[in-house]
Please model this.
Amino acid sequence: MARTEAAVRVGIGDREGLLGTLMLAPALVYIAALVGLPFCLAIALSLSSATIGNPGIHHFVGLANFASVLHESAFPLALRNSVIVTAATLIVTLVLATAESELLARDFRGKWFWQILIILPWAMPVSLAAVNWLWLLDSEFSPIDWILRQIHLLGPGTIWGPANHLYYYGREWLGLGSIVAINVWRLLPLATIIVLAGRTSIPRDIFEQAEVDGAGFFRVLFRITVPALLPILVVAAMFTALLVFGDMTVVAITTRGGPGYATQLLPYWAYLKGIEGGALSEGAAIALFMFPILLAVALLALRMVYRAESR
Amino acid sequence: MRLLRRIGFWLALGLFAIFSIFPAAWMVITSFKQDQDLYNVANNPFKYNLAPTLHNISFLFTGTHYPIFLWNSFYIGVIVVIITLLLSLPAAYSLSRLVGRWGERSGMAIFLVYLIPPTLLFIPLYQIVTFLKTANTDWSLVLVYPTITVPFCTWLLLGFFKSMPRELEEAALIDGCSRWQTFLRVALPLSLPGIATCVVFAFALSLSDYIYAAVFVSSTASRTVSAGVPTELIRGDIYYWQSLMAAAAIVAIPLAVAYGLLFDRLVKGFQNEPAGEKAG
Model:
């Protein structure tokens, strides 16, 4: 086999490298033009005084946009909320995805049907999922409020009363909690699929050996499954974190950042400032605040993967 | 003990399924409700206190732009899938076979590109789209969506190609095929499961984008389902709840069935990824 490989290397020779470059070029050029260039433009914009009415980037104002954004009362709230929502979604999603993948790793009757039910949230475009939840947690007609009233947890004279409604999107912590719930709901299928990919590549005989040795379900779970899943859990965590931290759709459709700025998130605030408010430069500055955080999370996650792999 | 385990298993599975479909079930129930039934707090929301009606769905198709949104989403999705495959298949193959050691190690670099979220790029992209005179048309979305799909699909396919045995391709090379022919006739057919996964993901990603669609396109006739439905059926303070829910259900349920049937394949698509690097 080594000889054939050597023959191929000599035979094709330089053309392989050329072909390789040619095949890679379209994707690279595209990414450079529509990810690399906009990224540089975002930095330039954030240092300029561009607005929607006057979008040219000629007049540079240094770090003035960052300074003015930092001094707004919305900034600490948006940053705090973005971090809290991402962290909470991440933890809940990973725990549930591990549990769900443990179930779906088995073979059982009618599995395809259950898979359809479980994947459904992910099949719904994010904005429609948010509309779905806007109605599910409606201030007046929420069926969850109705259930809570039926079991006497809500309404006059009950522990969550005396109001008849919880007003999910009108309160700070309930609003943030709702955003976390929506994100967990819509990302759990994807996280489960990723974790399941790791789960099904653990050799089966390990589990059989553990059973022979008389290890219980939870002992197997925490001693064998979870440690073996660690690298893939990091991948699932990166996907989830990215998709939550960078998302503005859920908050734009449900709480709209309110009441006040209590549930504001960085991406939606950037949108409000940059597009609705017309201050392109300040919007770009807010968006750029997300980048170092994303980079730090990604690098941390990569280090964990490599450490787990070299073990 | 065994019985207890079985009960625990089905109970847990049932709870996950309920969590998953409860909002969607409420969505479907709402779609067929009459106004007087829906907007009465005293009613049991889960049953039809008045006869169910198809009025809301016919309104969706005759009184709104929904059919146009569906069509826009569909054809934008198809074009984006084609562009994505044309760009990422050769790129992934090149990285895995042709450009040497650093190419094989570049999976994570590509993934980092995917980590730059649309919310960071949409303001400068809006300027680029305006500059190219494509603002307010579907072409702006066709142009921009591959920024989301290409890095992701290249990364997915890179893992797929790396896990494919090289022997078949080497045999083809020795039999006189050129590298390009080998790519087309041997590597591509072998990677069909990976390509299928990419098609599903690319379509899903382009369908579910909201931010670009909402920012770049403001004329109703060019909007996608994602951006069109919330703006068309929420008019100021008036929410057409039944039609909104029907609009979401009509998109979500067929897709859920399609994705559900592809479930195992999607799992396989992730199997050659970083965890696989450890194994290999």
Summary: Chain B has one domain: 65-279.
